[in-house]
């Protein structure tokens, strides 16, 4: 068990070194830029669907325009020579409503044009931002790589030590368990009881559990799955 715990200690050092890379400013920046790119992509999709909506509305407006133009042709072609007063009134009413509908349609189209311009402007802004983010992410990546190169020899050295220790492990079963759990992301695997708490997840252990632990010396935490040991 002593050897396994030594290996665990070395593995912890490796984890700390890897975390150093993860937490370095460049890595934090990189995550930020990846987020910007992701958000930009989503925003572009939104703009695209808005633009499609506008095109649809524009086509509707154009159809309506054509229909109204047809109506005006009909009014124009009416025979106005022998027209009576009632017909003149209805002609004026028709003409007025046509003017009203046309100007309303005109407003709608103008509104669509404004919206389209807004989308074009926003797309351009977004495009600039994304280009900038992409450009900077390149140099950030290089910095992260530099940091990785910096810790790589240290990690290699620790890994070498682990390789040297592995043949000395007596309890192969416990070591296999260790490797399996580490693989699953549970780390550390073997922890000590701390007062009445699990040394891993800090959950309070039942008296019953502690009693059992006293006889078995080693038990799996029901909460986090780590293996709790009794004594240091
Ligand atoms: Zn636990």
The count of β-strands is: 4
How large is the radius of gyration?
37 Å
List unreliable stretches of 5+ residues.
Answer: none
Helix content: over 70%
| Strand/helix succession | HHHHEEHEE
- The CATH architecture of the largest domain is Orthogonal Bundle
Mean pLDDT: 88
Main sheet record: 4 strands, mixed
Structure annotation, total helices: 5
Strand content: 5-15%
Shape: elongated
Bound molecules: zinc ion
Classification by helices and strands? mainly alpha
Sheet with most strands: strand arrangement: 2-1-4-3
How would you explain this protein's 3D organization?
The protein is mainly alpha-helical. It folds into 2 domains: 2-169, Orthogonal Bundle (Helix Hairpins), CATH 1.10.287; 174-229, no CATH class. 77% of the residues lie in helices and 6% in strands. It has 5 helices and 4 strands; from the N terminus they run ααααββαββ. It has helices at residues 2-23, 25-77, 85-165, 172-183, 207-216, and strands at residues 190-194, 197-198, 218-220, 227-229. Strands 2-1-4-3 form a 4-stranded mixed β-sheet, covered by helices on one side. A hairpin with a 2-residue loop joins strand 1 (190-194) and strand 2 (197-198). Helix 1 packs antiparallel against helix 3 and helix 2 (25-77) packs antiparallel against helix 3 (85-165). It is elongated. The chain starts with a helix and ends with a strand. The mean pLDDT is 88. Zinc ion binds at residues 198, 200-201, 203, 221, 223-224, 226. Residues 198, 200-201, 203, 221, 223-224, 226 line the site of zinc ion.
């Amino acid at each position: 068990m002593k050897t396994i715990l030594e290996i665990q200690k070395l593995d912890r050092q490796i984890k700390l070194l890897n975390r150093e890379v993860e937490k370095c400013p460049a890595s934090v920046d990189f995550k930020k830029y990846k987020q910007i790119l992701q958000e930009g992509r989503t925003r572009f999709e939104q703009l695209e669907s808005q633009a499609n909506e506008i095109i649809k509305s524009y086509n509707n407006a154009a159809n309506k325009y054509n229909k109204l133009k047809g109506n005006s042709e009909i009014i124009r072609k009416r025979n106005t020579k022998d027209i009576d007063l009632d017909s003149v009134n209805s002609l004026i009413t028709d003409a007025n409503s046509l003017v009203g509908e046309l100007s309303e349609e005109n407003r709608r189209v103008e509104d669509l044009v404004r919206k389209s311009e807004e989308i074009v402007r926003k797309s351009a802004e977004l495009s600039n931002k994304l280009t900038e983010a992409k450009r900077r992410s390149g140099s950030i990546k290089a910095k992260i790589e530099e940091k990785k190169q910096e810790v790589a020899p240290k990690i290699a050295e620790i890994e070498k030590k682990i390789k040297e220790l592995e043949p000395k492990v007596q309890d192969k079963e416990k070591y296999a368990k260790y490797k399996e759990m580490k693989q699953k992301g549970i780390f550390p695997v073997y922890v000590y009881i701390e007062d009445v708490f699990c040394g891993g997840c800090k959950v309070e252990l039942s008296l019953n559990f502690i009693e059992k632990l006293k006889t078995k010396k080693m038990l799996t935490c029901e909460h986090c799955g780590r293996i709790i040991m009794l004594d240091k």
